[in-house]
Each structure stands twice: as structure tokens, then as C-alpha cells.
Design brief:
It is built from 15 helices and eight strands. It has 411 residues and is mainly α.
């Protein structure tokens, strides 16, 4: 008996995605028996030739799509012939299962590894990592799928298909879509972490494509406030209670070096009188879980006293979301006539630079107060001010002059 084997590609127009693209379905028919599945490919309905079962556009991505459809059809024909030779008959469902790897052990796709990595990472949130870092891995996965959809009209790829050209193309795509070099590098760095996870999870990869990729970050000039600017903000009288509270929390961070997240979590339990009789902030950084102990200066003590017992949740200082706080800080900067893009993180830089290092506090002490594991991390924050250089050179000139006067006196 002669068998009839047909493959049809058609659109499911009632299931358009966010880009108004329809999924391309595959239908296998053998002797009137059918099996169908989603090819995971999609196309704009107006670019689809229903009669030919192909994309009618002549654009490069359309040609790639048609080549992919051809390869799917060729592979199904191969499976059909193999099954026919082996068994003497073929079911459309068996062709689908073999093609999709259903019912047999199959290699995981990269997005499957990515999802598995992120699921494991999520379990660490609140223990050894933060929700923010987990969210960045989720964002990286979304960006990767967006890149593959735009560049190759696919949303997944096998780990073995990721090569140096793929990585470089992903980096360039990010640069073309509102990412600066350092941000794009961070995305690629997280991609490499997941790639290593795939290898450690059993993916058979012979060549590491990241060995050819050069990670090069641009040096960033980090903004800080001068002492005059700190004083201007602190002494400014605001008619708005909202701006006053935001200002107080910001100044508190300027004089303690605490990250916004850590400052918002402080309660009376974190303020203790230490061995030297002074009040200290005793806490752990949310980001790294490293101890961060800071002796309180007069201004942060005054701010704490101002809000003691006023917050119903027991927080030292009232706070709002980080996004809202940054919006209000821009408003404060404008009112105070400060032409700098002030944000919550500038307070931490300002503490490291203007408040401590510029006043002679050793970098080792600053590093410990900031809760850093390495002084190298502190050096990123610690911009050496011209004022500090001037003071140091003046002290050196004074010492040299004294030595010269002493020698002249002795001789």
C-alpha cells in the first residue's frame, strides 16, 4: 500500500504575540492521520504566503526563516524514511516526537538552563544574595530572548550553538538598544555565568566561546558632593514635609556611607554605645552580608533624634521607594541650585570621598565602614579630591622647609 506523507506550515492568526506576529504551526499528515505542533517560529501575517507555506518577504530575516522551515521539513522527511525502513510504517505522532525529542533523553536548550539557573538563584534571595541581583538575571534572560527573536527570529538556542560571533552580536545589540558599554558588559558577564552553569550541569561543550570575548569596562567618573553642597542641602528649609524627610535620609547616608537599602532598614536596635562611649551603627550590608559598623557623627545623631519614636514601623528615619527618592533628590538639587545628578548612591560616594578621605581618614578605615571585602572596591568610590592633594603637598612642603631650616641652623 502506498503511503502519503505531507508537511504543511500554516499560521495560527488568533494567537498573535506582543509584536503582532503569528506562530507558525507544523502539520504532519500520513494517510489522512494528522499530528501538529508549534514550530516556535513566528511571522507577521501580512508577510505569509498561505499557498506556499512560506514567508513572502525578501528581507534577510525572512530568508533565514524560510531556510529554517526548509531544514525542519528535510529533517521530518529523513525521520519518515528512517521509520519507514525500520518499521515498515510511520505515524505522524512519532515523527513529531522524534523531531521534538519527546519521550527520549534530549539535550537541554540554553533557555532551559537559564531558567534552571535562575530558579536555583531565587532560592538564595534573602540568604546569600538579593532580589535585585536575581531580577538582573531574569532581565538578562529576557534581553537574550529579545535579541534572538530580533536577530534570528528564534527564542531559544542550544548551548553548543553559542559561539564567539553570537556573543559579540548580543553585545552589539545591547549597545544599539540604549545600553552603554559597562551595562552591556554586565549583561554578557551574567550570560557567561549561566553558560558556566550549563557546563557544570552536564552540557557537552568542547570549546568555551567566552575565551575569545574581551571584557573591557570603561572607567567611570563618579559624581560626589563638595562639603559646601552638603551644607547647602542640610541647611535648606523646605516647605514640603516630603522633601524634608528625603533630605534628612540623604544627608544621613552622606555622613554614614550606608547604602539606601541599608539605611531604610535601620531600627533603634542597630544604634549602640560602643567601647569608646560613642554611638555606633551596627549592621550588615544587605548586598554582601558583610559587617558595616560606623561611629555616628553629630549630624546623623541629630537626624536620628529628630525622628525617634515617630515612625510606626520602628524605622529610624522615614523612607520611600528608591525610585521616588531619586525623583525627589532631583527636585532638591534644583531648589538648592546644585547642577549635579543627585541620587541615593551619590551619598555613599560622598561619604567615602568628601566626608572621610578628604579629611584624612585612612582608606582602610573607610573600607571597613563601607562594609567592603577589599580595599580595591573602596578605591572605586574614593576619588581623590584636588583639595586633598593640595593639603598633602602643602604638608610635604612644610616638612621639607623645616628640614632645610634645621640644616641651615646646624651648619
Amino acid at each position: 500500500m502506498k503511503t502519503t506523507f505531507r508537511v504543511l506550515f500554516y499560521l495560527r492568526k488568533n494567537r498573535l504575540n506582543g509584536n503582532r506576529m503569528a506562530p507558525i504551526m507544523v502539520r504532519i499528515t500520513i494517510n489522512g492521520e494528522m499530528s501538529q505542533f508549534n514550530s516556535k517560529l513566528s511571522v507577521l501575517p501580512e508577510q505569509w504566503d498561505t499557498k506556499l507555506g512560506r514567508c513572502s518577504s525578501r528581507a534577510a530575516d525572512a530568508l533565514n526563516l524560510n531556510r529554517t522551515l526548509d531544514s525542519i521539513k528535510v529533517r521530518m522527511e529523513e525521520i519518515y524514511q528512517e521509520q519507514l525502513k525500520e518499521k515498515g510504517y510511520v505515524c505522524p505522532e512519532s515523527i513529531k516526537n522524534i523531531l521534538l525529542g519527546l519521550g527520549t533523553a534530549r539535550a537541554k536548550s540554553f533557555i532551559e538552563y537559564f531558567t534552571e539557573h535562575n530558579d536555583h538563584y531565587k532560592l538564595k534571595v534573602g540568604k546569600t544574595t538579593s532580589q535585585k541581583t536575581y531580577s538582573r538575571y531574569e532581565l538578562t534572560k529576557n534581553k537574550l530572548q529579545e535579541f534572538m527573536r530580533v536577530k534570528y527570529n528564534i527564542t531559544d538556542v542550544m548551548p553548543t550553538d553559542i559561539n564567539s560571533i553570537f556573543i559579540e552580536s548580543f553585545y552589539l545589540y545591547l549597545m544599539e538598544h540604549s545600553c552603554n558599554n559597562n551595562t552591556a558588559m554586565k549583561f554578557v558577564q551574567r550570560l557567561r555565568t549561566v553558560f558556566d552553569f550549563a557546563i557544570n550541569s552536564g552540557a557537552e561543550i568542547k570549546i568555551n566561546p567566552f575565551a575569545q570575548f574581551k571584557f573591557k569596562y570603561d572607567k567611570v567618573s563618579r559624581e560626589v558632593l563638595t562639603q559646601e553642597e552638603i551644607d547647602t542641602i542640610y541647611k535648606k528649609e523646605f516647605t514640603s514635609k516630603r522633601l524634608t524627610q528625603v533630605r534628612d535620609l540623604f544627608i544621613f547616608c552622606c555622613y554614614t556611607g550606608l547604602a539606601y537599602t541599608d539605611a531604610c532598614k535601620l531600627t533603634a536596635a542597630n544604634i549602640r554605645k560602643s567601647f569608646d562611649g560613642n554611638l555606633w551603627v551596627i549592621t550588615k550590608r544587605t548586598k554582601t552580608k558583610v559587617d558595616s559598623n560606623i561611629m555616628l557623627l553629630d549630624i546623623p545623631i541629630q537626624i536620628i533624634d529628630k525622628y525617634t519614636g515617630k515612625d510606626k514601623d520602628g524605622k529610624l528615619i522615614p523612607s520611600c521607594s528608591n525610585q521616588k527618592m531619586n525623583e525627589y533628590l532631583k527636585e532638591i538639587a534644583e531648589i538648592c541650585g546644585i547642577e549635579k545628578a543627585i541620587s541615593t548612591h551619590i551619598a555613599r560616594h560622598t561619604f567615602a570621598t568628601t566626608v572621610t578621605l578628604a579629611n584624612g581618614v585612612p582608606i582602610e578605615s573607610v573600607s571597613k565602614m563601607l562594609g567592603h571585602n577589599s580595599i580595591r572596591t573602596t578605591q572605586i568610590y574614593a576619588k581623590v579630591l584636588d583639595m586633598k592633594v593640595s593639603q598633602d603637598m602643602s604638608n610635604l612642603a612644610l616638612k621639607l622647609n623645616r628640614k632645610k631650616q634645621y640644616k641651615e641652623k646646624v651648619s
